Amino acid sequence: MIKSRYKVNLSRQLAECEANYWRLCKLMPEGVGGERWQFAVTSGGQQWRTQIEVTERSRYTTTLRLSQSDAALGDDWLKAPQLTVRLYHDAQLAEVLAWERHRHLQPRYEYPNRAMYHQDEKAQLNRFLGEWLGLCLAKGHTLETVW
């Protein structure tokens, strides 16, 4: 049995990136301004501090760093992945560029590969971002407004 090669579903990928763009826009209100936002997400009796920080801003793009840590512990001994996301304002898309130290993600990987990425690693990261932002919108509440 020959396994078929993974093909990127471009329309699904673009739909996910567009939805993530609008989720991020809701979490970063324009009128407030600032370069960093912090809020809490409470789920399952646990509270997490979520931070969104602008790392680069240009005319058509904005690059963000999203991170999350346990609000009760106050330290980062068990960290959720830190994502680097680029917003494309002209296309109204948000794409995951990197997580932790993994950068330059390809849309498709041959499997197996040296880095042990899944064939659809980039699509999975964009779906993860969508789920994370959806949780933030559903269960998030303000700790502080803007630093």
Short overview:
It is built from two helices and six strands; from the N terminus they run H-E-E-E-E-E-H-E.
**Rg result:** 16 Å
Strand line-up in the sheet with most strands: 5-4-3-2-1-6
Largest sheet: 6 strands, antiparallel
- The H-and-E topology, N to C, reads as HEEEEEHE
Number of helices: 2
Explain what the structure shows.
With 147 residues, the protein is an alpha+beta fold. Helix content is 25%, strand content 34%. Strand 4 and strand 5 (93-99) form a beta hairpin. Strands 5-4-3-2-1-6 form a six-stranded antiparallel beta sheet. It has helices at 10-27, 121-139, and strands at 36-43, 46-57, 61-70, 83-88, 93-99, 140-146. Helix 1 (10-27) packs parallel to helix 2. It starts with 9 loop residues before the first helix and ends with a strand.
Detail the topology: elements first, then pairings.
Elements: H1 10-27, E1 36-43, E2 46-57, E3 61-70, E4 83-88, E5 93-99, H2 121-139, E6 140-146
Antiparallel strand pairs: 1-2, 1-6, 2-3, 3-4, 4-5
Which features would summarize this protein structure in a list?
34% strand; 25% helix; single chain; 6-stranded antiparallel sheet; 147 residues; alpha+beta
